[in-house]
């Protein structure tokens, strides 16, 4: 099982960025995938997830209306479209596989850095 996050970037406040998480080694469509950033000096904080058949998405209040999660099961990839970025969105963004659909993350990507600064 492997998850590879990409989309590292330096963007200005109110800018946009899209992150990708490419998966391999398992039946991709069976599992929910989430994004979990870690801001400097802070712990991991879940922001969004999407289930395997793309019938349900969830967002943290801090990103609702600004971030959109999606997936392409034919490409084994999950995306996070990030709009109206704020300096407080600066973090190392990890994608992770949810083993049960109840927040049990068993495999993690390597993280991709997002920096929001003027």
Describe the structure.
With 118 residues, the chain is an all-beta fold. It has no helices and 11 strands. The chain has strands spanning 2-6, 9-11, 17-24, 32-38, 48-50, 57-59, 67-72, 77-82, 91-98, 105-108, 112-116. Strands 2, 4, 5, 6, 9, 10 and 11 form a 7-stranded mixed β-sheet that branches. Strands 1-3-8-7 form a 4-stranded antiparallel β-sheet, with no helix packed on it. It starts with a strand and ends with a strand. The mean pLDDT is 96.
Poorly predicted parts: none
- State the shape: globular
Count all strands and give the number.
11
Mean pLDDT: 96
Count of helical stretches: 0
Helix-strand category: mainly beta
Biggest sheet character: 7 strands, mixed
N to C succession of SSEs:
EEEEEEEEEEE
Instruction: Kindly estimate the percentage of residues that lie in beta strands according to DSSP.
Output: over 45%
Ends distance: 37 Å
Radius of gyration: 13 Å
Helix content: under 10%
Lay out the secondary structure.
Elements: E1 2-6, E2 9-11, E3 17-24, E4 32-38, E5 48-50, E6 57-59, E7 67-72, E8 77-82, E9 91-98, E10 105-108, E11 112-116
Question: Could you provide a short overview of the structure?
Answer:
The protein is mostly beta strands and 118 residues long. Helix content is 0%, strand content 49%. It has strands at 2-6, 9-11, 17-24, 32-38, 48-50, 57-59, 67-72, 77-82, 91-98, 105-108, 112-116.
Keyphrases for this structure?
globular; 118 residues; mainly beta; 7-stranded mixed beta sheet
